[in-house]
Amino acid sequence: MRRLVIPGELITERSVKLGGGVIAEDGGVHASTLGLLDEREGYVRVIPLSGRYNPKEGDFVIGVVSEAQNTYWVLDIRSPYRSILPGSEFHRELRGNERLRDLLPVGSAVYARIKEVTKTKGVFTTLRWRGTRVLNEGYLLDVSPSKIPRIIGKKDSMINVLRKEGGCKIIAGHNGVVWIEGSPERTAIIIEAIRYIEENSHRGGLTDHIKEMITQKRSEI
Amino acid sequence: MKKEGVKLIENGKRLDGRGLDELRPIKMEIGVLKRADGSAYVEWGENKIMAACYGPREVHPRHVEEPDRAIVRVRYNMAPFSVPDRKRPGPDRRSVEISKVTKEALEPVVLTHLFPRTVVDIFIEVLQANAGTRCAGITAAALAMADAGIPMRDLVASCAAGKIDGKVALDLMGLEDNYGEADLPVALAPNKKQVTLLQMDGNFTRAEFEEAFEKALGGCLKVYEMQKKTIRKKYEV
Question: Touching check for A20 and chain B: CB below 8 Å?
């Protein structure tokens, strides 16, 4: 059971490596966000319970096109910063007199990789990477970015249960957006399961419970 | 401040039965609003206050953003029905001042450098007022910010002390504020041991000031304990 820490709370006075959600001040390590304490040998971090997504290089995110310019798209990745998808980072070249807005009109969703975050928080994404893709159909679900690791699970255990038992295609972006593709009934079950994970993320033994929950709901369809 | 005929202390007890070092009953709750990123509701004696927090998010209008840090904006507002005579709606001199000092009480604890070019917006709505709304507002706003997951160095707790019938007393209520001699609101970042708000209305002698300040700090620490309990309660298994 992880301990809940409150901003400002002293975690340790030993010198340790700092992860996210902590701050070293006044000769001690303090929590800087409300969350659950993850303390290991020589390393501490706080897993936040809420908060906006802060873009990081190498993250995979689900973004929605909010602008289509001549040379780039602007993606909404549910963070305080707009992110740019340059036309040159689309997974193929333009043909004939195609324009960017023909390839990805405003409202399209993509699963992209964050290529670079500049000092001034300019965010650049790419679709030229293994695993990235355009998401044509499906449903986008907003969750707290801090819950994404729980939804994916250790070595993908949780998300594989959702995929297998739920019979849907599912992608979870680091920015807290989950894409689900399946029949409306199945999608509804997945949404319910994800909401349950969100609310009970601080409890153990979730994977088995979710497995049961989905099997039972599906038998009711 | 006037001082006529009203006896505020009798047999060492105040009009509502409190001793000189006692706070009014306080009730707190967090996460009360669905649409805000974070929220809190505080009942502090007869005060009823709702606070909401949004962000960090893109700054509008653009020209007020800072390239190297987040900014904090606070709007303190009183509902027309929050006082006995209807309050004319909209910002007035008093609420603009309180918005400003509240912002300055909260900003020092926010890790603004983590989110450059963004804003943290805080809204404090006073639904019912009975003296001490700025302290209750700051207390509620700090809870709302923690609920929103804003990175901060510390929580902020706030409480006032004042002077009634020539004696220093903790946490004045409406009547005492009206007929008392002085009021001293204080906000404290308890772990940093940093005072982020200190105002004074009326007159204290130097010794009285020091006594009132100590009392108010003690009040802040009590409020801080309640804040921590409120947060813990929400995530209890």
Answer: no
